[in-house]
Amino acid sequence: MSNKNTSGIIIKCLGGLYTVESPDSIYECKARGVFRNRGISPCVGDRVNIENGVISEILPRKNCIIRPPLANLDQLIFVVSTCSPAPNYLILDKFIAIAEFKGITPVVVITKTDLGDSSEIHKIYSSIGIDVLEVDYNDEATVEAVRKLLAGKISAFTGNSGAGKSTLLNAVDPSLNIPTAEISKKLGRGRHTTRHAELYKLAGGGYIADTPGFSTFDTNRYDIIRKDELADCFREMRDITDECQFRDCSHTCEKGCAVLEAVANGAISKSRHESYCAMYEEAKQLKEWELK
């Protein structure tokens, strides 16, 4: 590599080597030791400056998820299948909450619409203002809608193993040629085909990170949301929480809670509130050292 200084985006990290794409070329770089001393690691999605073949500066991030380490995401695409595997609303809601917490736009894409009913998923999430797309591989317009959504943005796909993330990515941009695995009948879930976070450049502009299936991760690996921050991560609860009679209301069981009233009258979906309550209980169990 030449000694010229440049800047670019990290598209791959493997074994301490960083692949950086700049406007003029692709570079393999190491990072300055000073980052390690400060406890900072460059990660996929970081915009960086390079001097003499070494990453010299990590530019400020707008967001970052911990594992897999990804920075500067515009949107998180949650791929949910109608069946095989069936939707897991708790896991989906946990990841949507993480996206809201991080200021990343959540999007739901439903696959296997020819094999099962997608109406419940569609109703729950579109009613709270989240974009919901349904993909039918016999209808190119549905794939094109996903393509348009990704253009010019940095996005990550996540979802249960076997939900069809890699198949969808390959349909959106066949040049990616991401390996897929058949669903294991014995396990009832997809074999893990994605080994590390990597940004793929899309033919239509923008980048996509194919990440390991979230059934293999505890959401605390992405980030920890404290119990008093949780209601703000459920967009349909945000405006209602101020109406509660109690300033420190948990919105799980209190009499006179405005959120519980909204659940009772159908303004908040029961499954979303059940997810909130489960996450609230988990957040209550967190030890102080885990929050640091």
Please provide a written account of the structure:
- There is one protein chain.
- The protein is an alpha/beta fold.
- It folds into three domains: 6-60, Beta Barrel (OB fold (Dihydrolipoamide Acetyltransferase, E2P)); 70-220, P-loop containing nucleotide triphosphate hydrolases (Rossmann fold, 3-Layer(aba) Sandwich), CATH 3.40.50; 224-291, Probable gtpase engc, domain 3 (Ribonucleotide Reductase Protein R1, domain 1).
- 25% of the residues lie in helices and 23% in strands.
- The chain has eight helices and 15 strands.
- A hairpin with a 4-residue loop joins strand 2 and strand 3 (26-31).
- The radius of gyration is 21 Å and the shape is globular.
- The model is unreliable at 182-194 and 214-218 (pLDDT under 50).
From the N-terminal CA to the C-terminal CA, the straight-line distance is 40 Å
Question: Any idea what the CATH architecture of the largest domain is?
Answer: 3-Layer(aba) Sandwich
Residues in helices, as a percent range: 25-40%
Q: Low-confidence segments, ≥5 residues, pLDDT <50?
A: 182-194, 214-218
| Chain-averaged pLDDT | 85
Q: What is the N-to-C order of secondary-structure elements (H for helix, E for strand)?
A: EEEHEEEEEHEHEHEHEEEEHHH
Radius of gyration: 21 Å
Q: What is the domain tally?
A: 3
Class computed from helices, strands and strand pairing: alpha/beta
Q: What is the CATH top level name of the largest domain?
A: Alpha Beta
- Main sheet overview: 6 strands, mixed
Tally of individual helices: 8
